[in-house]
Amino acid sequence: MTSAAPMIRLRGIRKSYGSHEVLKGIDLDVDQGRIVSIIGPSGSGKSTLLRSVNMLEEISHGEIWLDGVQVNSALTGRAFETHINRIRQQMGMVFQQFNLFPHLTALENVSIAPMKLKGKSKAEAEALARTLLEKVGLADKGGAYPARLSGGQKQRVAIARALAMQPKAMLFDEATSALDPELVDEVNLVMKQLAAEQMTMIIVTHEMRFAAEVSDHVLFMDGGVVVEQGPPEQVLKAPTQERTRGFLRKHLAQ
Amino acid sequence: MLDFSVLPPYADLLATGALWTVLITVLAGALSVVLGVLLALVTLYGPKLISLPLRGIAFLFMGTPLLLQLYLLYYGLAQLGVLLPAFWTGVMGLGVHYAVYNADIFRSAIQSVDEGQMEAARSLGFGRTAALRHFIIPQATLTALPQVGNNSIILLKDTAVLSVLGVAELVLNAQRGISATYRPFEFYFAVAVLYYLLNLAMEWALGRAARKAEAIR
Asked: What's the whole-number average pLDDT of chain B?
């Protein structure tokens, strides 16, 4: 694939639940190393769009591409399963509710995927996991079960777990929304660090200030469409659309 | 009146009986867990064509006495020319009987695992079966542990039923002692104590496992 092609490309993404259309034709290009934030009111379809990228949500129409490979390929059955599993290994995802594996220690949470999916030896996978836990500031928590970690620590382990597959891109689904306010910064810090390392990221967030700080591009979604998009200084500071202004007013008033 | 000194000469007999009881419990218990998980998985994820009849058969096992099922397996099949050793008939009968109960427990335990677990596993690139194996089933097993443990304790006591098939477990061996000494009270009392001790050991082991499971919540 030529380096000019975007890392993630979405074309005409549509999704319906019955007769209710939640995504009404969305296009998006995210170049390698770029960071796109998606903002919008709840129910706007922003999480659904993000979850479509690695097909945790099935879309009704459109095309999804990762690094020149079509994610929603025409394959069926087992062949598609193999294909989508391989694609997902190249895209890390971080969830609002962390979704750590509670029966595994922090170290095992991070090392299990490289071990089981990439055939790395236990020693290799654990060395990698230790490096990643150190990177997210949790070098001393490898032996802890998730139940013994704070929300912020859990989310940092979850980020390390996703990074362990050495993904080409990372998807963040309201990664800090479930956290107590004082724990938000430690997670944001890790995300900023990733941004500095040129990780390609799509971030669904409620935090306008964070979006303004890290994003190259901001999408404002409402009612299943992209109402406005552009660089953060435009969309967040000088929006041209009334709906964007209304949303930001409400959010900044909080 | 009571004379427990009749027992020591039969200590070997009772000990052998206890060993067989433990062996049957371990084998039938293992079968009931493995088969229970499989049944739960098939009825949850398998095609309706298989899962519906299976649930029907399971209902038959729950709705009829264990003793009757063992008679059917042992004497009924023998009449049809299928001769199974009493020991294995007992292990199979007990194992399947309790598998049906365990399947219900595993089924609801699997369903109670948060959906986010499957999503997290899938997002990493695990296939559905691998996700079940590495993440969902281990967690469901921990949830199911107390109830499956209770079933295993009931199973241990139900091994006594195998005496009617002539399996030399605790009860049958006690009866052998009784027919030599005419001392039913002493022997049955001793056997009761042995069952009680076995159950204590089992509860202790289950308690340890449960505390381990609790540590991750």
From this structure: 93
Backbone angles phi, psi at B7, to 5 degrees: -75, -45
* Topology annotation, domain B4-216: MetI-like fold (1.10.3720)
The overall average pLDDT reported for chain A is 94
Q: Best interface-test mutation with A: which of B110, B113, B119, B123 has the largest number of A CBs within 10 A?
A: B123
Measure in Å the smallest separation between the Cα of B118 and chain A Cα atoms: 9
* Residue B22 in this model has a pLDDT that exceeds 90: yes
| B189 has a pLDDT exceeding 90 | yes
Q: Is the pLDDT of residue B92 over 60?
A: yes
Of B114, B124, B134, the CB nearest to A88: B124
Q: What is the 3-state secondary structure (H, E, C) of chain B?
A: CCCHHHCHHHHHHHHHHHHHHHHHHHHHHHHHHHHHHHHHHHHHHCCHHHHHHHHHHHHHHHHCCHHHHHHHHHHHHHHCCCCCCHHHHHHHHHHHHHHHHHHHHHHHHHHHCCHHHHHHHHHHCCCHHHHHHHHHHHHHHHHHHHHHHHHHHHHHHHHHHHHHHCCCCHHHHHHHHHHHHCCHHHHHHHHHHHHHHHHHHHHHHHHHHHHHHHCCC
pTM of the model: 0.88
Contacts of A161 in chain B (CB under 8 A): 124
Flag whether pLDDT at B215 surpasses 80: no
Subunit contact B124:A103, Cβ cutoff 8 A: no
Closest residue of chain B to A84, computed from CA coordinates = B125
Chain A neighbors of B120, CB-CB under 8 A: 93, 95, 99-101, 158
Domain ranges, ordered by start, for chain B? 4-216
pLDDT band at residue A3 using 50, 70 and 90 as cut-offs: low
| CB spacing of B123 vs A117 below 8 angstroms | no
CB contact under 8 A, B126 and A162: no
